[in-house]
Amino acid sequence: MKPPAPVATRRTVLRRVLQIGGTVLAAPMINVGRYAVAGSPSRKYSARAIRLVNETQCVDLKHALSLNPGELQRWLTQVGAFDAEARARFQRTGLKIIQTTLETDPNVLLDYAWHNGFIAAHSDTFFRVDAPAALEGRKDGRIGIMLGCENSEHFNSVDDVNRFYALGQRVSQLTYNAQNRLGAGSTERVDGGLSDYGAAIVERMNAVGMAVDLSHCGARTTLDAISASRKPVLFTHATARALNASHPRTKTDEAIRKLAAGGGVMGIAFLRVFARDREPTTIEHVLDHFDHVARIAGVEHVAVGSDLALYGYDALPRDVVAASKATLKPGSYGFREKDDIEGLDHPKRLFDLTEGLIRRGYGDSDIGLMLGGNALRALRAIWI
N or C: which end of the chain has fewer CB within 10 A? Predict the structure, then answer.
């Protein structure tokens, strides 16, 4: 049977709009008990939050290099476009490892070539994370990049899993929002579950050591894939349905518990519509999702999966955002006037998140697990 035509993701369309074929330093603020982080003198954080971010192997399971298609194209294809200012912005985030997603349309091989070339050309800033040893991070302030895809339609055969593994892919969502050969996406009208082909892909991903990501999968496909996988699976960027029942990209308590039972982790996404279905929506509502998953599944299974870049969607040109949203099933995401959440819409968001987790009463050890320890544990188990 001929495979169905590739379904465009929001990230793919952002690219098509343009027709594309270190270390954090703190300076004390006098008499206020809070500190400014280098590069952001107007933002002040507690010494505890700064220490936790600096000392933790912080991981964002879903962080784009850039959401701006023009900027990303220049960085990937033009020598010198990724300049000292861009390098400094990344190195001040506190991030140690990120997963970024690539094309799955006919440009997928070119996109892997571009990203691998970009990482190699900027080895003073980045390194590729593709083996358990690389998860240990670097002491030199460089940021590790895991290569992933937001769909698995580029696996035209089971052997393609091995081929893309050889190119550096270490994470793959089984589906985007719609139906594909593997299963149903979260906005598909009928979710028939994981297909036989999908089960074969999961089996091969387990065998080679590629993470099965179910962030965009429908509810039944999600549960089927958790059952089919012999290794932990990931929700790299999602939120809890118990707190946002109307959004299709949320995960049920049943799915979260089963993910945790298999050793997986859930990265909490920061987009406004994922956190809450009405206004006001603040960072506190995102923290509610951290609390909920920790309560029902254990703090050992909560992680960060912002689904953003250094900045969010509200910083993009409006026509780019409109083109991105036009790929989604009408009305399915319930977008409102703003997409981002104040405090989580800038490069230093990890410090704001950490302050929030401190406010919620978490100890240093648990905060370290959520900022990165849990993601690293699951990835090691998957990649071995």
Answer: N
pLDDT per residue as tens digits for the range 107-154: 899 999 999 999 999 999 999 999 999 998 777 899 999 999 999 999
Question: Rounded CA gap, 302 and 297, in Å?
Answer: 8
φ, ψ of residue 73 to 5 degrees: the values are -60, -45
Q: Are strands 143-149 and 97-102 parallel, antiparallel or unpaired?
A: parallel
Contact 147, 168 (CB under 8 A): yes
Helix 108-121 with 69-77: angle, nearest 10 deg: 70
Residue 315: CA count within 13 A, CB half-sphere: 16
Per-domain residue ranges of the chain: 10-383
- The token duo for 36 is 């400014």
Asked whether the predicted pLDDT for residue 98 surpasses 80, the reply is yes
Can you tell me the distance from the alpha carbon of 135 to that of 129, in angstroms, rounded to the nearest whole number? Answer: 7
Instruction: Give the E-state strand segments of the chain in sequence order.
Output: 26-28, 35-37, 40-45, 59-60, 97-102, 126-128, 143-149, 169-173, 211-213, 234-240, 250-251, 265-268, 302-304
More confident site: 362 or 13: 362
For residue 183, give Cα distances in angstroms to 177, 201, 265, 267, 359.
Answer: 10, 11, 21, 21, 40
**Closest to 111 in 3D by CA, of 77, 78, 79:** 77
Cα separation, 225 vs 246, whole angstroms: 23
